[in-house]
Model the fold of this input.
Amino acid sequence: MELLMSIVIGIIFSVSIYLFMSKNLLRVAVATLLLSHGVHLLLVTMSGLQRGASPILSFDAEAYTDPLPHALVLTAIVISFAVTALLLVMSYRTYKVHKTDDLEKLRGSADE
Done:
Protein backbone atom coordinates (compact mmCIF):
# COMPACT_ATOMS: atom_id res chain seq x y z
CA MET A 1 0.00 0.00 0.00
CA GLU A 2 2.89 2.36 0.74
CA LEU A 3 4.29 1.75 -2.76
CA LEU A 4 1.01 2.70 -4.39
CA MET A 5 0.71 5.81 -2.23
CA SER A 6 4.31 6.77 -3.07
CA ILE A 7 3.52 6.53 -6.79
CA VAL A 8 0.38 8.65 -6.34
CA ILE A 9 2.34 11.23 -4.33
CA GLY A 10 4.99 11.37 -7.06
CA ILE A 11 2.31 11.94 -9.71
CA ILE A 12 0.70 14.70 -7.65
CA PHE A 13 4.08 16.38 -7.10
CA SER A 14 4.96 16.22 -10.80
CA VAL A 15 1.58 17.63 -11.86
CA SER A 16 1.90 20.45 -9.35
CA ILE A 17 5.42 21.32 -10.51
CA TYR A 18 4.20 21.29 -14.12
CA LEU A 19 1.40 23.68 -13.17
CA PHE A 20 3.85 25.93 -11.30
CA MET A 21 5.77 26.46 -14.53
CA SER A 22 2.73 27.67 -16.45
CA LYS A 23 2.04 31.32 -17.24
CA ASN A 24 -1.50 31.35 -15.88
CA LEU A 25 -2.02 32.75 -12.38
CA LEU A 26 -4.95 30.45 -11.61
CA ARG A 27 -2.89 27.39 -12.51
CA VAL A 28 -0.25 28.49 -10.03
CA ALA A 29 -2.91 28.69 -7.30
CA VAL A 30 -4.14 25.19 -8.21
CA ALA A 31 -0.53 23.97 -8.17
CA THR A 32 -0.17 25.24 -4.61
CA LEU A 33 -3.33 23.37 -3.65
CA LEU A 34 -2.11 20.14 -5.28
CA LEU A 35 1.32 20.44 -3.70
CA SER A 36 -0.20 20.83 -0.25
CA HIS A 37 -2.40 17.77 -0.78
CA GLY A 38 0.66 15.83 -1.89
CA VAL A 39 2.44 16.81 1.31
CA HIS A 40 -0.59 15.71 3.35
CA LEU A 41 -0.53 12.30 1.68
CA LEU A 42 3.22 12.12 2.21
CA LEU A 43 2.85 12.77 5.94
CA VAL A 44 0.19 10.10 6.31
CA THR A 45 2.17 7.61 4.22
CA MET A 46 5.42 8.20 6.09
CA SER A 47 3.65 7.50 9.37
CA GLY A 48 3.37 3.90 8.24
CA LEU A 49 -0.33 3.49 7.34
CA GLN A 50 -0.76 1.37 10.48
CA ARG A 51 -3.97 -0.24 11.50
CA GLY A 52 -4.89 -0.52 15.10
CA ALA A 53 -7.13 0.70 17.84
CA SER A 54 -7.48 4.27 18.92
CA PRO A 55 -5.05 5.02 21.76
CA ILE A 56 -7.80 6.58 23.89
CA LEU A 57 -10.80 4.26 23.82
CA SER A 58 -9.44 0.81 24.69
CA PHE A 59 -6.54 -0.58 26.68
CA ASP A 60 -6.71 -4.22 25.49
CA ALA A 61 -5.77 -3.73 21.83
CA GLU A 62 -2.79 -5.45 20.23
CA ALA A 63 -1.63 -2.36 18.31
CA TYR A 64 -2.33 1.32 18.57
CA THR A 65 -2.21 3.99 15.91
CA ASP A 66 -0.12 7.08 16.35
CA PRO A 67 -2.41 10.14 16.53
CA LEU A 68 0.37 12.68 15.93
CA PRO A 69 0.57 12.39 12.09
CA HIS A 70 -3.20 12.72 11.84
CA ALA A 71 -3.17 15.81 14.02
CA LEU A 72 -0.38 17.30 11.92
CA VAL A 73 -2.29 16.61 8.71
CA LEU A 74 -5.50 18.12 10.08
CA THR A 75 -3.61 21.25 11.03
CA ALA A 76 -1.92 21.35 7.63
CA ILE A 77 -5.29 21.00 5.86
CA VAL A 78 -6.63 24.05 7.66
CA ILE A 79 -3.50 26.05 6.86
CA SER A 80 -3.50 25.01 3.19
CA PHE A 81 -7.18 25.92 2.91
CA ALA A 82 -6.42 29.41 4.22
CA VAL A 83 -3.42 29.81 1.90
CA THR A 84 -5.44 28.64 -1.10
CA ALA A 85 -8.26 31.03 -0.27
CA LEU A 86 -5.76 33.88 0.03
CA LEU A 87 -4.15 32.98 -3.29
CA LEU A 88 -7.50 32.80 -5.05
CA VAL A 89 -8.55 36.20 -3.68
CA MET A 90 -5.21 37.72 -4.68
CA SER A 91 -5.50 36.17 -8.15
CA TYR A 92 -9.00 37.54 -8.58
CA ARG A 93 -7.96 40.99 -7.43
CA THR A 94 -4.95 40.96 -9.74
CA TYR A 95 -7.16 39.99 -12.66
CA LYS A 96 -9.66 42.75 -11.87
CA VAL A 97 -6.97 45.43 -11.64
CA HIS A 98 -4.69 44.40 -14.53
CA LYS A 99 -7.28 42.67 -16.78
CA THR A 100 -4.95 39.70 -17.33
CA ASP A 101 -3.81 36.58 -15.52
CA ASP A 102 -0.73 36.00 -17.70
CA LEU A 103 2.37 36.13 -15.52
CA GLU A 104 4.58 37.36 -18.37
CA LYS A 105 2.33 40.39 -18.92
CA LEU A 106 2.15 41.07 -15.19
CA ARG A 107 5.93 41.06 -14.93
CA GLY A 108 6.24 44.47 -16.55
CA SER A 109 9.20 45.87 -18.40
CA ALA A 110 12.79 46.40 -17.32
CA ASP A 111 12.56 50.20 -17.27
CA GLU A 112 9.81 50.33 -14.63
In short: Residues 68 and 88 are 30 Å apart (CA to CA).
